[in-house]
Specification:
Layout lengths: L2 H18 L9 H17 L10 H7 L12 H9 L17 H11 L8 H8 L1 H9 L1 H23 L18 E6 L2 E6 L18 E2 L10 E4 L4 E4 L14 E2 L4 E7 L2 E6 L4 E6 L6 E2 L4 E5 L1
Antiparallel strand pairs: 1-2, 2-3, 4-11, 5-7, 5-10, 6-9, 7-8, 9-11
Helix pairs in contact: 1-2, 5-6, 6-7
């Protein structure tokens, strides 16, 4: 199928989605919600999945009336989906749902010694984007950027070397005696640790609670299943700061939310297609992922 044919499919899907959503006004951000869901519908159906299998949380808020009353009624199929997922419709004033959080973030900034900025611009930035702001202020964002930059440089150098004539390639000495991965036992609990050495580029996440990966024994039938990313974006274990995400060893059921992907300015819930135990979280919180990347391993 050509890109032109896919584009026509997208236009047709936008026309289909708009009345199903209750004719939201096609202005920011509602026009983005309609376009994003139409795009995901086309992509998912082309991959053999069902329509509406990827509705992001921001769009659900709009559908449920949490951002204001829609012009028309929401389609029955979406109302049924909302009910099956335990979502409730709201018919009041959206402002009544929200509590003023500025004092909360103002207190957090005072505790951390952060300046609220001129006209409290920094305070508003923190309140609007808490995860990104904390990553910036703590240095985690810079660390991830430098690691990603180093990784891209390494790949570029490897590609350059691989394209060299054999006689021109530099000799590389690898010390195979240095272990890269160790399995250790801490009070009866098994953990897998990635080891790096001075001078090496480490791609491991240095956040304390993500350094160790608990080793889960395979199930009796030895199966390995994965939760994969349906789209490109940023991977998060939680949607809000302070929430607790899934962890290695947790039991999960098919259809249960396990992670989030931020893409096209919206948050998409990632559910597990399998029932089992989380054996490994393959991507660090806040990392960029591509479509079909494995995110979580399940046994």
């Amino acid at each position: 199928m050509s890109q032109d044919e896919l584009l026509i499919k997208l236009f047709d899907e936008v026309e289909y989605v708009l009345p199903k959503f209750g004719f939201p006004p096609l202005v920011t951000p509602y026009s983005q919600y309609v376009k994003n869901v139409a795009l995901m519908n086309v992509v998912q159906m082309e991959k053999g999945n069902e329509r509406w299998s990827m509705i992001d949380e921001n769009t659900w808020d709009m559908i449920l009336g949490q951002q204001g009353r829609l012009i028309g009624p929401v389609a029955e199929e979406l109302q049924k989906m909302a009910q099956e997922q335990g979502r409730t419709f709201f018919d009041g004033d959206p402002n009544d749902r929200l509590e003023d959080q500025l004092d909360v973030y103002r207190k957090k900034m005072a505790e951390k010694g952060w300046d609220v900025g001129l006209d409290e611009e920094e305070l508003f930035e923190y309140a609007m984007h808490p995860q990104q702001y904390e990553a910036f202020k703590s240095g985690v964002a810079k660390q991830k950027f430098e690691e990603e930059l180093a990784s891209k440089r390494d790949r570029a150098q490897s590609l350059e070397v691989s394209n060299m004539p054999s006689a021109s390639k530099p000799s590389v000495s690898k010390d195979s005696s240095k272990p890269k991965v160790l399995d250790i036992d801490v009070n009866g609990e098994k953990y897998r640790v990635t080891v790096s050495y001075p001078g090496e580029t480490s791609q491991t996440n240095k956040v304390a609670d993500e350094v160790f990966t608990k080793v889960v024994e395979p199930s009796e039938n030895g199966r390995e299943l994965f939760v994969s990313s349906p789209l490109e974006g940023k991977f998060y274990l939680t949607k809000e700061v302070g929430e607790k995400g899934v962890k290695v060893g947790d039991k999960i059921k098919a259809g249960e939310p396990v992670a989030y992907i931020e893409a096209m300015k919206v948050i998409n819930v990632i559910t597990s297609p399998h029932t089992g135990t989380i054996a490994e979280i393959l991507v660090s919180h806040g990392s960029e992922v591509c479509e079909d990347d494995h995110l979580i391993k399940i046994v």
